[in-house]
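Board notes, transcribed. Complex of a protein with flavin mononucleotide.
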Amino acid sequence: MTEAISGRAIDAQRFRRALALHAAGVVVITAQCEEGPVGLTATSFSSVSLEPPLVSFYVGRESKTWPRLREAGCFAVNVLAGDQAELAARFASRGVDRFAAPTVWELAPPGVPLLAGVSAHLVCALHSTMDIGDHVLVVGLVAEAHIDPGGLPLLYHRGRFGHFVPHS
Ligand SMILES: Cc1cc2nc3c(=O)[nH]c(=O)nc-3n(C[C@H](O)[C@H](O)[C@H](O)COP(=O)(O)O)c2cc1C
């Protein structure tokens, strides 16, 4: 079996179509660097370890935000709520001030921008990174969390934002 697939790689378009079927929660990663706040939308967020408490996301090597996130040394994971699709789109757009109104945010200790109205914030210290393919794996050590226990998530599926509908 391994021999049958070794060295083969799926066609890029088919790969994207398959991945688009995986519904994912949406987060915005934020940090404060010398020039001010930076942030980007990501669906590659994942939990990694409970002890120590680690989380991860992948960022594209071409990202203009990534070098500034790395320089900041700490970041927040803002877990978006179901009604925050516009915010997600803004933090994925280039050529806009992502933190200008109508974005509502505050700078919280130890100096990380936190977005308002989210389901949860995870405040992280940059733990480690690894170059992998055309992305960088970024691992954060979680120092604290702020939680809205009633929060329902924003999801991304087949190129569209949507809501989570629990089974009754
Ligand atoms: C729903 C959605 C999910 C995204 N997930 C990621 C991601 O996991 N990693 C990533 O590097 N970019 C992701 N992006 C793209 C970034 O949000 C952003 O557009 C890109 O990094 C370019 O901006 P930058 O140069 O400021 O990084 C996603 C975009 C959207 C709309």
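The radius of gyration is 17 Å. The chain has one domain: 25-156.
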